[in-house]
Amino acid sequence: MEWRFCLTRRKRLDLSSALARGEFVPYFQPLVDLRTGELRGCEVLARWVHPTRGIVLPDDFIPYAEESGIIAALSECVLSKAFEACATLNQTFVLSVNISPIQFRDPILSKRLSELSTRHRFPLDRVKVEITESTLLTNLADAQSISTQLKLLGVKLSLDDFGTGYSSLAHLQALPFDEIKIDRSFVSSMCCRRESMKIVAAVIGLGRSLGLTTVAEGIEESAQADMLRCLGCEVGQGWFYGRPVPIEELQAMLALSRPS
Ligand code: C2E
Ligand code: CA
Ligand code: CA
Ligand code: CA
């Protein structure tokens, strides 16, 4: 118990000083129109550029940042860099940002996003907030009021990891979502498991009938992209289209794809 406490305290100190040193940065992963191949947006994924450990992935620090209460500050640091960089790109794609359950309970979330938007001149109608269902379990009424505030500012709302949570359908009905993201677990098995394919097809149909954009995540092979396209899925994301990259690489990619 004591050892665990020490470890947690140590982690907390590590995270706080990393935050102070600005070691958290945004990486960007493309979201692509499955029919035309055009860039529709980018998901912002946090990375810790550690002085000795190299690039640390979110699963290794987001849970501790949530636990120790610095998630909002960390997120603000990452989003600030992302907005700043993308405001100058001369592009119109949407930035999808991951918001933790704790942040989605914070009544000033919309104020924080507005401030960042103003500071970096990155319009909020180019921002999409991704939340998972765990966000909605504790207090649906708060989530509804925060969603309404965000929507009034022009922010779009996406239900992430769709199909893995609890009572997904009730949540789709309760909140003003614009998009559902089909979880990677279904996409990765859809070409070899008939059940997965049927579930993906049903989710795409559901999204369509509710007027929502359907996004498939974790596309690693062309066969998956082909099947999703045939099933009517609009947007895709995954290593097949591009891994998460730092801003310099995103800029280089965009420069290459721009017609001369
Ligand atoms: P997520 O939101 O479901 O993000 C998708 C994850 O799948 C990312 O992992 C991404 O790198 C990975 N991925 C994308 N395409 C593929 C693929 O084709 N194959 C495979 N195997 N993986 C793929 P990552 O970057 O490690 O992030 C993990 C999770 O950490 C995210 O899952 C998200 O829940 C959370 N996260 C990341 N950045 C932030 C942040 O700034 N704030 C918060 N609150 N959470 C974040
Ligand atoms: Ca996400
Ligand atoms: Ca996801
Ligand atoms: Ca996930």
From TrEMBL:
Residues 8-258 form the EAL domain. Coiled coil: none annotated. It comes from the Bacteria. This is Diguanylate phosphodiesterase. The lineage of its organism: Bacteria, Pseudomonadati, Acidobacteriota, Terriglobia, Terriglobales. The chain holds residues 1 to 260 of 668 of the full protein.
